[in-house]
Amino acid sequence: MNFSSRVKDEILEVVAEAKLDASTSSEFKQFCQICLDAEEETILFNLLKVDFLDSSGISSLVTLHRRLKKAGKESAIVYENPQIEEVFIMTKLNRLFTLYQDLEEAYEELG
Amino acid sequence: MKTIQAKVLLLLILVSLFSLGTSLMLIHQHVRAQVKENLRDELDARFNLLSILMRSQEIALKKQTVLLAEEPTLKMSMETKDQRTVTDTMGQLQIMLQNSLFLTTTDTGQLLSSVKSDHEGFGTDKEKIVLEALDGDLGADFWEVNQKLYLVAISPVEFHDFIQGAVACGFELSSDYTKFLEAKAGVKVSLFVEDHLVASSWEFDEKDRELDKSEMFQVGIEQWFGQVYELELRSRKVQFLLQKSYSRAVRTLDSVRDKLAFLGVVIFLLAVFISVIFSHQLTRPIQGLTAAAHRLSEGDWETEVRVESSDELGSLSRSFESMRESLIRQRETIKSTEAMKKDLELAGKIQQSLLPRETPQITGVELFGKLIPSNQIGGDYYGYFPNPDGTLAIVIADVSGHGAASALLMAMARSTLQSLHGMTHEPDKLLAEVNRILHPDLVEAEAFISMFALYLNPHDRTLTYANAGHNFPLLFRKSKGLLELDTEGMLIGILEDVEFGKEIIEFDDSNLLVLYTDGLTEAMGKEGEGLFGEERLTQYLDTVKESSANQILDGLYDKVERFAGELAYRDDRTCVVLKCHFS
Lengths: 111, 583
Fold this sequence. Notes:
The structure holds 2 protein chains of 2 kinds. Chain A has helices at 25-31, 33-37, 55-70, 82-91, 103-110, and strands spanning 3-8, 11-20, 42-53, 74-79, 99-100. By secondary structure, chain A is of the alpha/beta class. Chain A has one domain (3-110): 2-Layer Sandwich (Transcription Regulator spoIIAA), CATH 3.30.750.24. In chain A, strands 1-2-3-4-5 form a 5-stranded mixed sheet, sandwiched between helices. The longest helix of chain A has 16 residues, at 55-70. The radius of gyration of chain A is 13 Å and the shape is globular. The mean pLDDT of chain A is 90. In chain B, the strands form 4 sheets. Chain B has a 5-stranded antiparallel sheet with strand order 2-1-5-4-3. In chain B, helix 2 runs antiparallel to helix 3, helix 6 packs parallel to helix 7 (312-354) and helix 8 (404-420) runs antiparallel to helix 9 (427-444). The longest helix of chain B is centred in the N-terminal third of the chain and has 68 residues, at 2-69. Chain B starts with a helix and ends with a strand. The interface between A and B is medium-sized, with 17 and 25 residues.
């Protein structure tokens, strides 16, 4: 599993690839420690290249959301895959997370 | 180990013995061949010395004879041919000169005098002496007189310019003389004239024998090497047999050989001794390691393996020691893993006991539930809560993650549900209360629970439900088809205060309701065909919806396991199948 990060328009973007499940979620959480350490106040989780999200992945996103909120930071998720869409709807997390399906739109809104 | 040591040692001994034996044999053969050559060379050198010695004696004898011939008394007495006077003069001179032979002859060869020797013996030679003297040849000669050999010099005696006669002067080449030669040359000397022994420096008793150039002689138990040299003076040829002990030379060499052999054996024994020590030192650590390995196999793990050495064996021993320590650690790990496994098994049993032990019996309702944890314990849950009024509450839940932590949270959730049982008949209120109670602990544990609760009322044939982010249960009604059961809400443990939606459904004559957790729909296909998915689930249920609840449940698990194989066991799988028939 590859994770990367970049900073653009004072937004820290974390890019995940392939899948967020039991096999990758703890590594993802560990990688995302940079979000808490970073100066940027806004974090965007880019899941555009993620095609599978299970309850472990959800758990890591919820945990990160909580931690960032506690640290006074704002977070959002950009995704595309319908399976992820289903999961967000089913778990009602679409109510919790700020979700986008387009990267440019996300930057516009967050910026 | 001992066998290897013995084999190496035996090989070493054999090789050493072979080398030692071969070396000694070669030395022995080479030396034997050299002995005769060396003796021959030595005798040649000795003879050269002797011939120089004799030559100088010959010259001295000649000079002496010339001086004698010049003696006036002798000259005068010879002129008078007065035998008596000549003999007297000769006698005095002989005492003075200490030579053993003197004789004089007249110019006609008549013997005038002879001193010491038996003059009869000269009869045949007198004329020759005179003639030689007259010829002025003053050479020396070997004379054999009465089987005795003499070295003789001859000189003419002149008086008043006339040769009056001749004088011969010489000495016997006696055994004393040969002893003198032996003393000078260091070899046994025997003199032969025409193969006849005339004098010898030792008790060489082969008086008459044909002499070869060189040969071996057996004297007593000793072997002697002899070499014949010839010296010729005018009329005679004298053979010198020089001899030196072959046995002694061989003995000397043999003693050298024996010393070498002794030294060889000593070195060999020393080598064997050192080899034994060395091989013992070499094999001791190996034996130590073998013993340690044996102890390990016997179950003694505690004895340390220590070989203090900087070589490969030391390194091997250190590796062995680290292996032993690692084995001990592994054993501890295995022990603790086994203990943990037992704990897990026990926890699994306890968890199973938290699930419904019996299914409530309601007329027209078939109800079957099944939970298979991914490990011994899991984070899934389902429960039946029958009420005295004949209604039934059913809850299915899935704690995020799986394993021990999830199992503990699941137990908490179950207790909460138990405690809330009977306090409300409204699923939305139940979920809101559960969320309120569990929220702090779930936040602390960084976990959440998806939960679905329903109330089944067989009296008015209604189903009331609320969903907290759980997989939508599937309801098949004969007349209305498929419905996914969802309401407003949120996963349990995300938000502190959640208001859940509530839906009421009216049952048909024939209804099939399936509640499940994501372990079933997210099972990965073993052939890479992705997730089992809700579509496959719906399709399956659609084909079997007329079957009994029990068959549907078992059939679903079979289907998922066939689809995912081993991959099916990665998550907890829970399913509750409810069939209601109302007539």
